[in-house]
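Review form for a predicted model. The reviewer records the input and the model, then writes brief findings.
Reviewer: anonymous (R2)
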Amino acid sequence: MRYFTAELYEKMQVRGSLVFHETLEDHEEDLRWYAEQNRDYDAIARDNYLMLEPYFNRYMPKVVREAVDRGEGDLLRSSWPSPAFRSLLEGWAQSLEKEWRAACETYREYYRTIESRLPPEMESLVRLHDAKVLQVTVTDGGSSIDLLLDTGGSMLSASEALLRFNGVTRFDLPDDLVGNWWLYEELELPAGGIARDGAGETGFQIRALLSSPRGYLAMNELSITAESVDVVLTA
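Model under review:
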């Protein structure tokens, strides 16, 4: 992936955890609600932290690390942070958000340059977020690939989608592709774009970042370069 990398996705999971109640009163009200529901707020906060701990450690800025080491705050998020420590974490969150937005805008700018040359089937390929891979079939010596997806949770108004890639020239599929959740895709054209008149380079490449069934935040990537794709939707 060139834009929506596994590293960037990991950073955005960290970003999603760096969210605070607006006021101390809101925080205390949340604590009361958890208690009324017989849920252990501290245990849940600890479990969430442990799940993301490798990524906190990997991407934590030096200034935040030093504050944690001095005992000025922690990332368990079970207690109300001091204003100074909260400011550090909010600054970290803002830098992560800025990185994500920059990647999105860079890809959007590229996509706008190729959008008019993409075949109409591509409209479905950019609406697959949260689809689940059900079946993979590679035939004709690798020149044809079928992906059957459960798209009930995606942005497509269909329960399933069959993606049939024709004239495949290159592909890289993970061994455990079945059961993966589709996160983000990137489309790319060769320099000549789609040659509808038989001249110039043909085909397109799709790269996708997927959430692997190996566990939370285990990432996979697929890449397929093909002449065309047929999309069959099932209501």
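Findings: Confidence is low (pLDDT under 50) at residues 192-200.
Further findings: The two ends are 31 Å apart (CA to CA).
Recommendation: see findings above.
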